[in-house]
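SUBJECT: A protein chain and its fold
Encoding: whole-number codes for local backbone shapes
Chain under study, with its fold:
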Amino acid sequence: MIDKIRSVNNWSQTIFLSAFFGLALALPLAEALKQISVIVIILLGIHLIFKKELKFEENLLTYSAVGLVLSSLMSAFFAFNTTEALKACIDIFRIIMIFLIIKNIPLNLNQLVIFNKILFFSMIVALLYGLYQFYFFPNPSPDEITYLKLHSIGHVNHSSIYLLLVFTIALTWLFYRDNRFPNISTSLLLFIIISSLAGIFITGSRATMFTSLLLMLLIFLLFFITKQYRNTKLLVILAILTIIPLIVLFSSEYSLERLLLGFNMIHRDALMEASIRAWVEHNIFFGIGADNSHYINPQDYTESVFPIIPHAHNTYITYLLERGLFGLSLYVIFIFSVLIALSKQYAKTKDRLVTAALLIWLVNFLISSVNTTFHDENGLLMVLIWGLALNQQLTPDRRQS
């Protein structure tokens, strides 16, 4: 299989790398470049599949990934609005295709380092532009709150999740010891960690604030127990980076209020309850169609301040309502298949990329209980990191190291 993949010719490799690096740059910055990069990678992947130069493994992970796309397609036939449901199918199709292609196309270590550097650079540019808009162009209406948003991502919660994902990657690259990967500048990584953490707190997203603090505490314990940290000085820096946000949190009335508000789930509980009741009433097996939740009035099922369900503020309940038992089951099988594959890969390599992928899996799992995560830019970034971590089993230079 590796020999077949290695036969990818130079022009294909050049096109792929251009789109691959372009996607890292475009995710939070440029919608057009992002869409072009995704389309190029998918078309090239399909071309290589037909030429038998790219082959997907036949296992539960691949089957559940393909099944996830099919479940979205099937739910479209039972949707209130088939057009909207089919558009949502395109989103999950491109996420899964990017995952399967990245997982199976060989990349060397230098290319992975370049990808991460571009990812960090694009986040900084997007964050700086977002801060510029936030401070200099606030909402003209005094009744409306101005939120920090990343340019191509939009919604404040989605932007905050993206910052958290990049924060997780940078945190692992800085503190985790790994002789296989070239190190990225410590100063750059510290800048990424601090700036993304600041961005998270400015957004005021309760889930990401809580998860970022939890991640730092978790990594501190993990590195201290396993002694995989790069050196003692960096471990002290991690402890300081954990303490400072706590000081800021408990000294800032805004941040503390936003975090404590996260424990008040009364409005979201109503949306979740209404979503479950609507699921039972409509189509248990295939749901009401992806992105069709807004056709449900939660006030028909429970006491709610919302006239529609934008989404259930819970990935699993949203899948249940929109894609039914069939879609939810395949999603759960898929993400736990990813976890099993990453755990096996970690047992072999224990490198920082797989560690980052596992932590991102944890981030997705935790935030999925209070928000929707596996779609658009955040879904793409997650599967990119998962795919790159699992890609290692195909790359000879990593096996030799």
User: Anything to note?
Assistant: Residues 1-8, 394-401 have pLDDT under 50 and may be disordered. The CA atoms of residues 141 and 378 lie 30 Å apart. Residues 1-55 form one domain.
